[in-house]
Structure formats: structure tokens, C-alpha cells
Amino acid sequence: MQGKARMTCQTPPRRNATTYFLPVATVLSAIAIFIADTCTLVETAFAMLYVVVVLMATRFLPARGVWLVASGCAGLSVLSFFLTPPPTPVAIMNLFIGLSAIGLTALLGMRSQSAEATLREKANLLELTHDAIFSRSMDNRITFWNSGAEAMYGHNREAVVGGVPFQLLKTVFPVSLDEINAELLRAGRWE
Fold it and tell me: Per residue in 90-115, pLDDT tens?
């Protein structure tokens, strides 16, 4: 008796409208800024608007893509500069300021992406432990609730994130919460 080979067809993940919205909006924004910059005779720092395009790109592209978008925006800015009437000192200054802003925005956007990735990795590590771990913001709202906390306290993460931990857990403090927060800010921890 021969075993039957089981074939499965995996369909690619479904993409919703928002998956396509940011890339399309980014491209259309860059084109609109280029046209406005080229057609307008006013000596305005249109290149600064490319910063918005680069920021949009950091939301959906990896670092290499962000650099490509930033390079494209810088190229459009330089092209527009040469397509307009003879440059003035103000136009030259605006170009350099705009190019600097584009580059700095790309650099900061990629650093932010890196920090977010590190934070996600750390949160994933906290999920691996069986210990109950949760974090709260200084305005007393739960920001993280791991599976160990779900098991120990009996509340799922969706129900508690954003809630007040002391009300949820009916915590009794040995000193006032203001004193605890002051010590937390002073020493960086409280026990």
C-alpha cells in the first residue's frame, strides 16, 4: 500500500487596503512636492517637505529602502533646483538645508526602527518566561502584560493593557504611590 502524497497550496497572505496606501501615498507625495517645487517661482524650501516622505517610508520600509527613498527625494530636490531659473543665494541655501534635513530624517528614522526592533526582541524574550511580568507607565497604565501574568492573575492581555494595575490587582502599598513614584524617578527602581 502506497502512501498518498499530500499537497497543499499555500496562498500568500491577504493584504488589505492600508498595506498599499502608504507606499502609494509616499510616491504621490514625492511627485507632488517635485512638481510644486519645480513649477513655483517662490524661493521656498520645498525640499523640507521631502522630510514627510522619508518619515512615511520609515513606517513600511527597511533601512535600505529608507535610504533609497531619501536618495530619491534628494535627487528630485537637486533636479528641481536645476530645472528652475538661475539660482540665487537663498535658493542654494534652501537646497543645502533641505538636503541636510532629508539625510538627518533618514538617519533618525532608521535609528528609531532599530530601537523598535530591539524593544520587540526584548518583549519577545519576556514572553518566554513563565514568571508573571507586566510593566506600567508613569501615569499608572499597564503597557505590557506577558503570558505568565495572564496565567497567574487570570486576566488576558487584551483586557488589561491600558488599565490601572493597582485597581486590577487590588494592590495595597506600604507607602503612598507618590512616594513610590518619587523613589522610582530618583533611583530608577523600587522594591
Answer: 888 888 999 999 999 999 999 999 99
Q: What gap in Å lies between CA 149 and CA 70, rounded to an integer?
A: 43
Q: What is the pLDDT of residue 3?
A: 45
Cα separation values, 179 from 44, 64, 165, 185, Å: 52, 47, 17, 10
Looking at residues 80-85, what average pLDDT do you find? Answer: 87
Q: Alpha-carbon distance 146 to 143, whole Å? A: 10
Q: Which pairs from 132-136 meet CB under 8 Å and 24+ separation?
A: 134/160, 134/165, 136/165
Whole-number Å distance between alpha carbons of 111 and 81 = 29
- Give per-residue burial for 70-92: e unless 16+ CB within 10 Å, then b: bebbbebbeebbeebeeeeeeee
- Note whether 30 and 72 are within 8 A (CB): yes
pTM of the model: 0.64
**Percent of the chain residues past pLDDT 70, beyond the cut:** 90
Rounded CA-CA distance 171/39 in Å is: 64
The secondary structure of 137-175 as a DSSP string is -TTS-EEEE-HHHHHHH---HHHHTTS-HHHHHT---SS
